[in-house]
Amino acid sequence: MEITKVSKVKKTYMRPRIVAFIPAHNEEKSIRDCLEGLKDQVLPAGVEMDVFVIADNCSDRTEEIAMMAGQELGLMLKVLVTKNNKQRKVGALNSAWKTIYGDILNIFNLELSEYQQMYKNSVKAILGMDADSRLAPNALKELWEGLMSARNIGGVMAKYTMRMPKKKSMLSLDDPHYEEKIASGEYGGPLTRWWTHQQKQDMASWLLNLQYHGGSTYVLGGQASLFRPEAIMDIVEKNKLDAPWQNDSDVEDMLLTWQLQKAGWKTLISPSARCFVDAMRNYHAFRQQRNKWQAGTVDLLTSREIAIKTRHTGRLWRSQLNMFSNLSIRIFFVSLLTLSLVTAQYSWSWIWITPVILASILNVMLAAKTPMHRPIDVILAAILISPEIYLWVNLRTFCQVWLDKLSVNKKDGWANQYNAESGKTRSKLGLGILLICLSITTLSIITVYLRDYFTSPVVQGAVFPYLMIGWTILTYLTILQSIQMVYQIWTLRGRHTA
Fold first, then answer.
1. DSSP 3-state of 340
2. In DSSP terms, which residues pair with 167 in a beta bridge?
3. Which of 54, 167, 276, 427 is deepest in the core (most CB within 10 A)?
């Protein structure tokens, strides 16, 4: 008589679920807040949520605090611990992926158990989050609705807003946790709060631009994006990967997004879901973060090995050209103005007030559309102090990235950013400002001392033709940039919000 083998796993129904992947490297101060944000979410009807916190090479209490928070908040939470992970965030995310979908490189060809297969099939969306981010209430449901609105949508990203530090003056100097609270970024002085707003306004400008052009995004940011598992698996299969996230780029989330678009999946920004993220607290940390982002973008645009293109490639190249144009105009203007003043040949033209007025209008509109802005932010935007300082910082990054591109030594963007955030490296901003001040002072002294020579007819006659050519070129560049600002002002009048 033939005996039929009975499965040990009872056939049962498993509800559809969202799984959250949260890579966390020494995030003991922020992981609970992130998990509290997940607790606040209203899940879609009939959908469950599991949370995977990946304690990645941690030397603090991240694992312990995450476990305690999960129990207290009633989350279905599991902590995965990585050891000797050399791929940082990429390796942490991939370890969570393999926990559910298996390890293709496993030499024993282990198959998923019947329960594991059933669990894998129940996963309908994967939420990728940073441990220092927090979803606004209802954000997850709004991301879900966006992802499920069409079958060809591979991922939907939340709108990011930088969290403004509380006023430092609210803290008592007698508070025993004073230094700890300042170091955590929860509180900050006027400069820190101003710097945070500039990053928030920059993010708002980027989000508004994406929405105006249809809502498609060239990067599903790692701070909070919801992915369709079938889309990610499609990338794994088509590119013969062992896991979705790759260490070939400093911007792994952008690389994955480009691969999704190449495979025919849509990548969108949610019009309503919001995620609050931490800003870089100081100039040095900001510069290292932007160096990593900018270098990763340039590598993707110029790499022949990765060979990935996106529908946004043209826009990204135009962005690079726009930065070059901004840099050229400012260098031209400063050089020509200095030479004109030194040789006493400067004459005012009202055409130069046009781009100033347009820039003021543009930045006021951006400041007003930035979530939770302050009156002082709008005022500083109107008089162009904040936008100009912020632009020069980004121009500094632009120059360094392209110069490094020509260098044979590749820098570790992740390590540089982490070291800057943790205070292991210091900024050279003070030295740079000192050198600029010394240069201006030296030039002024030389100009005054040799004034008769510089203003002599011989020198004026030799310099004049070059000044005329330079001012003419600068005029045309200014007209082109003014047209671009008019276009940006026109787009900002729309109904979209940041």
1. helix
2. 188
3. 54
